[in-house]
Structure formats: C-alpha cells, structure tokens
C-alpha cells in the first residue's frame, strides 16, 4: 500500500468577531479529527477580507481557543502576510490562460441576465455570464476591475466536479453552469476566499479539511482551482451546523453572541453535542470540569465514528 502523507488539519476563522457557539463547534471538530488521526492541527487567521475584520478579534479568538485547551501544533499563520503567494498563483493562472481580467460591475451582470430574460432569485448567487471572457472580446478597452477563473464550458468534463465528502457522501456540481467564472481578486483589491484558501492549504500541506456544512458548496470551486494550479486535493468533511432557535445558522452576520466561556468545559460539551457526540452521558460526575479528560473522551468518541475516520 502506498504510504499516505501525515495528517495535517487546520481551523481557519475569519476575525470578524469572537468565536460563537457555531465556530467553536467547527474548531472542536477539526481539532478532534486531527487528534483521532494522530495528526497535527494548525490555525490560520483568514484576514484577507479587510473590511470584514475587527481590530483585536484575531487575538480574542486565540485566547478563546486556548481557554478551551485547543492549542495549535505550529505558530498561527495570518493570510494578510501571505499576499506574495497569492500574487504568484494568480500570475500562473493568467500565464496559463486560466484567469482573465473582468470589468463588470454587479449592475452589468444583472443587465446581462435581464437581457436574456432571466429573473434573479433573492439570495441566489449570480452566475457570471462570461461577458469579459477572452473568446468573447475580453475587456473591450475597459480597465479590469477584478480577476476571474475561466471555468470552461458548461457540461464539459473540466467543469464537472464530483467528490466525496466524508459525512455527506457523493457530491457533484457543474461549476461553469451553477457558479460561472468566479472571482480570484476583487475589485477592491482584496484576495477572494477561494484563491487564498486553496493556496494556503497547499502551502501548509493540509491533507484534511474539516469545516461546517455551509461551506460544502465552496468545495467544487476549490477543487477546480486546485486542478488549475496543479495542487493536491485534501479530504473533506463538512460537519453539522449549530442553529439558532429560529433554525438559522449561528453566524456573526446574524448577531450570534460570543461563546460563553465562563465554564470552558460546559461550552465544549455543548459543541460536542452539536456535533452528534454522546459525550454528556459518558462523563463521570464532576469530570466535566477537567478539560483534558473531556477532550480525551471527545477524541475517543470521534475515532469511533468509523465512517468519518476510515474514509479519510
């Protein structure tokens, strides 16, 4: 059997505010998976989207994780310090004919679709119509506002991405048809999430990505981008989300409060239960206050979820 690379996982929060109950559950899941595999757990602060970041939030996230005993095995990395890597990746894509400049605004995209008789559904993602593709005339003398990945022709093998999630099972998407040519660098100069995360995962040697299932629909775009850059594809596991009383996903944008760490063990218990681990009933009286015991039990229970661990 071919030797597999050592397990390297990561937690990659955006410092748009402190961790809430949902983001703590995501952090715990990635930590447990790394420990169940005997691997390493890294921490990456995804702060390339400057307008979303809050001053001091990254430091608060580090403090919250440490309070819960979730310590990275290597020094944390900050995306804002890695711009040269993203520049090099974009240059490779441009040189290879896989990325191109785009002059379109959101209003331009809306008009292009309206001209074809399409009605945009509320909250639905805009599928880029390919207005600035080189084969359609390119920028036509207009300055480039952003850079996009050329996803190919809808229905073509290059655009069809099928992959298997360790929890959700078989997944499939025609990226060209359902997303279109997505942005790599935005009009405001910020690097897009898709490019930054793909470059970072490869540069840090990430073999396993464990994150919330709300990010599952990003995976086909990231796999397409990995292939365009000749980078390896990690194993993916998308975990259950923590939801508010109204059923909506807990998120900073919807006003989710910071996780209450007055009792870190209690917070970890709630996170473990949100992930489906039957941890509460297995604790001895009084054990909930001892983080090492609680985390050790969590690793044991996670490792018993054979379909998640064995399929990685």
UniProtKB/TrEMBL annotation:
Q: What is the UniProt remark on how the cofactor binds and its stoichiometry? A: Binds 1 zinc ion per subunit.
For this protein, the parts annotated as crossing the membrane are none
Q: Give the cofactors, semicolon-separated.
A: Zn(2+)
Where on this chain is 'KMSKS' region (motif)? 249-253
Matches recorded under Gene3D superfamilies: HUPs
Residue span of motif 'HIGH' region: 13-23
- Write the Enzyme Commission number(s) for this entry: 6.1.1.-
Specify which residues bind Zn(2+) according to the UniProt entry for this protein.
Answer: 102, 104, 128, 132
Residues binding L-glutamate? 10-14, 46, 193, 211
Record keywords: Aminoacyl-tRNA synthetase, ATP-binding, Ligase, Metal-binding, Nucleotide-binding, Protein biosynthesis, Zinc
- Enzyme class (EC, first level): ligase
Similarity field: Belongs to the class-I aminoacyl-tRNA synthetase family. GluQ subfamily.
Question: Which PANTHER family does the record match to this protein?
Answer: GLUTAMATE--TRNA LIGASE, GLUTAMYL-Q TRNA(ASP) SYNTHETASE
Biological function: Catalyzes the tRNA-independent activation of glutamate in presence of ATP and the subsequent transfer of glutamate onto a tRNA(Asp). Glutamate is transferred on the 2-amino-5-(4,5-dihydroxy-2-cyclopenten-1-yl) moiety of the queuosine in the wobble position of the QUC anticodon.
Q: What is this protein called?
A: Glutamyl-Q tRNA(Asp) synthetase
- Its gene name is gluQ
């Amino acid at each position: 059997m071919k030797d597999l690379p050592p397990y390297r996982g990561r937690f990659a929060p955006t410092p748009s505010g402190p961790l809430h109950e949902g983001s703590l559950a995501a952090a715990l899941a990635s930590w447990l998976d790394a420990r169940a595999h005997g691997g390493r757990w890294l921490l990456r602060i995804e702060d390339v989207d400057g307008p979303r970041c809050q001053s001091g939030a990254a430091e608060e996230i580090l403090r919250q994780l440490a309070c819960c005993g979730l310590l990275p095995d290597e020094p944390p990395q900050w995306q804002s310090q890695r711009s040269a890597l993203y520049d090099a990746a974009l240059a490779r894509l441009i040189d290879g004919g896989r990325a191109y400049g785009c002059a379109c605004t959101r209003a331009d995209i809306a008009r292009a679709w309206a001209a074809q008789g399409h009605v945009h559904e509320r909250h639905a993602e805009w599928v880029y119509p390919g207005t600035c593709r080189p084969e359609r005339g390119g920028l036509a003398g207009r300055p480039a506002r952003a850079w996009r990945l050329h996803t190919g022709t809808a229905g073509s093998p290059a655009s069809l991405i099928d992959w298997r999630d360790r929890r959700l099972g078989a997944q499939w998407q025609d990226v060209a048809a359902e997303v279109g040519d997505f942005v790599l660098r935005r009009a405001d100069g910020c690097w897009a999430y898709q490019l930054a995360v793909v470059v970072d995962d490869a540069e840090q040697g990430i073999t396993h990505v464990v994150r919330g299932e709300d990010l599952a629909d990003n995976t086909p775009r990231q796999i397409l981008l990995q292939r365009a850059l000749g980078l390896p594809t990690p194993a993916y596991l998308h975990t259950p989300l923590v939801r508010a009383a109204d059923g909506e996903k807990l998120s900073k944008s919807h006003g989710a409060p910071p996780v209450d760490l007055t009792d870190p063990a209690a917070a970890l218990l709630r996170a473990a239960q949100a992930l489906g681990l039957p941890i509460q009933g297995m604790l001895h009286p009084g054990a909930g206050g001892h983080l090492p015991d609680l985390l050790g039990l969590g690793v044991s229970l996670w490792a018993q979820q054979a379909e998640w661990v064995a399929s990685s």
